[in-house]
Amino acid sequence: METVKNNWSAYRRRRALYVLMAAVTLPPILIVILTSGAVSIPFGQIWREMAGGESSTASLVIWQIRLPRIAGALLGGISLALAGAALQAVLKNPLAAPSTLGISQGAAFGAALAITITGMNRPGFYQERFGISDTILVSLSAFLFSLMVTAVIVVLARLRRSNRETMILAGVALSTFFMAGVTLLQYFADETQLAAIVNWSFGDLTRGSWRELAIVAATALAATIYYFLNRFNYNAMLAGDDVARSLGVNVERLRLTTMLMASLATAATVAVFGILGFVGLVAPHIGRRLVGEDSRLLFPLSALLGVLLLMLADLLGRGILSSIALPAGVITSFFGTPVFLMLLFGKGER
Amino acid sequence: MAFRVSGLSFGYGRKTILDNISCVFEKGQLHVLLGVNGAGKSTLLKLLDRQIKPDNGAILLGDTPLSAFSGTEIARRVAYVPHRHELSSLTVADYLLLGRKPYISWSIGPHDEEVVIDVLKRLHLEEFALRSLLELSSGELQKVALARALVQDPEVVMLDEPTSNLDLKNQHEVMELISEEIKNRDLTAIVAMHDVNLALRFGTAFTLLRGGSILAAGGREAMTLENLRKLYGIDLQMQSFGAHTVVFAG
Known about the structure:
In chain A, 78% of the residues lie in helices and 0% in strands. Chain A is mainly α. The model of chain A has no long low-confidence stretch (mean pLDDT 86). By secondary structure, chain B is α/β, with parallel strands linked by helices. Helices cover 32% and strands 29% of the residues of chain B. The longest helix of chain B has 18 residues, at 168-185. Chain B is globular. The interface between A and B is medium-sized, with 27 and 41 residues.
């Protein structure tokens, strides 16, 4: 009896170690982001510059450029990776993620549509008439369209014939559809709008103002709390819908609310940063390889990996070309594609 | 009395699965549900576990209508083992821990782990504790699924065809485990199955379902040759060998 108990605890500690390892990798990368770039700031001076308000160039760079980027990576990474992990749990599909199901692309289309429409009016028109600023309108539209995609997926998931593969294929179809919509809008857009729309299709962590970051933080927090409270329910779902139901889980409500939460968090992220492809797919998948499917470990590890991936993508985007910085979204899409293909055709667990 | 069912009807769309059935499931028995594929055995189990809700009729769990319980309250009294098990890479111990779900309010406590370890021991599954479900044979998996149900500490455990994928040895082992738990822990089991001989060997009460209605119910006296011929619609023979009775086609 004691040996089983001891082995079990040892096993759990071993798994938890991965989460710890991911957590300790973060600070060094954070410091690299803070210190390196066009203006290099020595490590020893970070705290002094930060405390000095925005008086010097260095503190301005930290407060206005590097810290928002770090906050962006944190919030975007957590939002997308957890959305992916949660979607994979309730749809029982290791390939489910905001970008593979078309939720991100729906949000991008919503944003592009709002940019086009607001751009047709004089600036501040909707502010005067409805009291909604253009930025909020763009975010709302992004959310609305991501919800529409979610609604389609919910309906598809209920169909008898839908299985893992058809669901992803439907997601691919939806993604293509909405990206075609974005292209169409680009065709009619003027230069300023075009720049804004193109920006949206390649997520950039530097884009968030502190106010926008606060909105993303709020949705990320709400979603994270919801996932956390349901961690045992997600585990119960691993045993199948009927067993989960017999364990007292309201499977239908859990699935629906989780999808709404994931869409909300994704929409907020996409509305502020644009599409950061594959983070929501790859982070939970790597996490699953390391600690297995127990949500109590998989979710925190996925969140950490999501943040790490985005920070590395950001650094890489800045290091590849000397003249310009590539947005993190370009990097995640580039490296996400081969990983996605590996998941599809490699010998996975499922 | 574990369950009392009266005037229960259920259908999917226009198709009637169960038509106005009434029956009782006494405490401390190993109830066997028999019937051809599609007779409504699985549906009855799911209704008793309130995974689905009846179109008509009432189900009493003890003295209380099933509809008066919350999902968690039912889960603390009734455990369910499906016919097909959804696999994951969870270890056996972590899988069993799922059975504590109805008792977890905030986090898993030491008591929950003790229950899991106790059941592992009772069912002689200790060596599998840290193995992934994906590495188990069908027989091991079936025992693990039963263990998960027992971890729920239920009054009634329902099993949908627990032996249909198993070899002879594992069939008997699983049924013996269920019988032992009934004897030692004041448990009631309701088991849907196809193997008449296994039913005769281990069952203590029988409910024969045909075309959504109850053909016969009761103790061994319900298992007459005539009833079984009607139930399966083929010619059967019955023969006694010492203490055992065997049914075969022909």
